[in-house]
Write a structure and sequence with these properties.
single chain, about 500 residues, alpha/beta, 5-stranded mixed sheet, binds zinc ion
């Protein structure tokens, strides 16, 4: 375990550099260490497998980072110190950004060539991406203060939001439950794929569990330390052994039929909860594909794991790029992934099998994908969707306390062919209209207390819950108000943490 900064219940209001009491001497601050390496974790402070990597170049284009000024010189620092966290975060973000920069590819972040990183923004068990920065927080953990930046799982998840925003910016303001959940899923997939870039972690994973990667492991368990900290606040806020698990048995359900929140042991339409359907499908495809592709199925090599993960990342990127922004977003990304994989029948069959098994694609849709590829070249079927801004729709808004309409971004891109998920009875689920999906999304935000009313609605008309995390805000415009996203966040301890 890391040397947490003590068990004192009093959490420092602003953690001091090197707050932990440690006898490890600091490296000479005037010159870089001759070794040219920094210390980090492979995945999460709770699994606590140390990793030493070459000094990350934070200014490396196209995806540079701006860390707090006056940072410590690169060196191997003691666990539990600010200096260790600084370089552990830097190492994880550099690894993840380098991975995506090659595969997407990207020329810069949504906001420009460099993305700000705030390591200790405030007291909370949270992290977020707000289009200008990755913000990390600190709060009470089981063994002392938890700094969310220290977990590679958390930092690469937040960076995943930024990567997806850079190449599919329409999803930022899209008023749609599946799109919001997909952003969370992509963050978790980003954490998984970034971890798989570490050779020692790959070796450990393929040698455990008889080579079966789709099983509970420290790879599948995401953000264990933050999960423990949240569970201590409220057992419903995290899964039993981590924040979220990529190994799960959640099948697609129409999010309009789900409660807007639930304990993490159940499925709800809350984005982090609903995200687990797609993440679970992706990780299952990874596990089944590795067994199918390995020369020795019961003993895949770490190199085979890397290759299969890379192939699937390519299909995912294609799937996202080529999907029109539509209300049943999960099914469209899955369908386009299947099309992207069609040149390789092994991948294609497994992707169809898993997506159908999890109801993300209906049986009818999965079979029609084969016919589509026969009448249309794969390139044409996988043609990138347009990147026009989304349409704006006005929702009746008196039930939200708003005078006039609430203007939101809705699905408007054309569908080229019928793509459907399946319901309980295996029958295709008719996708809702863009406006109906947007209304359901907005209803959830108000019911969860996630909207900052600002000055748009008189305070006596507000719905007030003890929910301090406001992911969205109302902005006054002619004829009513516009809904604006502020950030994507962890958000699970949305009422705030107890000191
Ligand atoms: Zn997130």
């Amino acid at each position: 375990m890391p040397q947490a900064p003590g068990k004192s219940k009093k959490v420092p209001t602003k953690p001091a550099a090197g707050a932990a009491k440690t006898k490890t001497p600091k490296t000479n601050v005037s010159s870089p260490p001759p070794t040219g390496t920094v210390g980090s974790w492979e995945d999460d402070p709770e699994s606590a497998v140390s990793l030493t990597v070459p000094i990350p170049d934070l200014s490396k284009p196209p995806l540079a980072f701006s860390f707090p000024a006056g940072g410590p010189p690169p060196a191997i620092y003691a666990h539990g110190t600010y200096e260790f966290r600084y370089w552990a975060t830097a190492a994880a973000l550099r690894r993840g950004a380098d991975y995506w920069a090659k595969r997407v590819p990207l020329s810069q972040w949504h906001g420009g060539p460099s993305l700000q990183v705030v390591l200790e923004k405030d007291f909370d068990l949270d992290a977020n991406y707000d289009r200008t920065a990755l913000n990390f927080f600190y709060g009470p953990g089981v063994m002392g203060t938890v700094f969310t930046c220290e977990s590679a799982d958390v930092s690469c998840h937040e960076m995943g939001h930024a990567v997806l925003d850079a190449f599919k910016p329409q999803l930022w303001g899209f008023a749609n439950k599946e799109a919001a959940a997909f952003h969370e899923s992509f963050g978790d997939i980003s954490a998984l794929l970034s971890a798989i870039q570490i050779p020692s972690l790959r070796t450990a994973i393929v040698t455990a569990n008889g080579g079966n990667v789709y099983t509970k492991s420290r790879l599948s368990r995401l953000a264990e330390q933050l999960g423990s900290a949240l569970r201590a606040q409220d057992p419903d806020l995290a899964e039993v052994d981590c924040l979220r698990s990529a190994v799960n048995s959640f099948n697609y359900q129409d999010p309009a039929t789900l409660p807007n929140t639930a304990a993490m042991s159940c499925l709800s339409s809350e984005p982090h909860s609903f995200s687990r359907i797609f993440t679970g499908a992706f990780f299952e495809i990874l596990g089944v594909s590795l067994t199918a592709k390995a020369v020795t199925p019961e003993a895949p090599t770490e190199a085979e794991l890397l290759t299969v993960a890379d192939d699937l990342a390519g299909f995912l990127v294609q799937g996202i790029k080529c999907s029109p922004v539509v209300s049943n977003w999960y099914a469209h990304v899955a369908a386009k992934m299947v099309i992207a994989a069609q040149a390789d029948p092994t991948y294609s069959s497994i992707a169809r099998g898993v997506f159908v098994g999890r109801h993300i694609l209906s049986l009818q849709c999965a079979s029609s994908l084969l016919e589509i590829s026969q009448v249309k070249s794969l390139e044409a079927a996988a043609e990138p969707a347009t990147h026009e801004p989304l349409s704006i729709a006005g929702l009746p808004a008196s039930q939200y306390g708003i005078d006039g309409m609430l203007f939101v971004e809705v699905a408007s891109e054309p569908r080229e062919f019928s793509v459907t998920s399946a319901g309980f009875n295996a029958e295709p689920v008719a996708p809702p209209s863009g406006t109906a999906a947007a209304k359901a999304f907005v209803d959830d935000l108000f019911m969860r207390g996630q909207i900052d009313y600002g000055t748009v609605v008189a305070p006596e008309r507000w719905l007030v819950r003890n929910h301090k995390t406001k992911t969205h805000a109302l902005v006054k415009v002619d004829g009513g108000a516009r809904l604006e996203r502020r950030f994507f966040n962890c958000g699970l301890c949305a009422r705030g943490v107890s000191r």
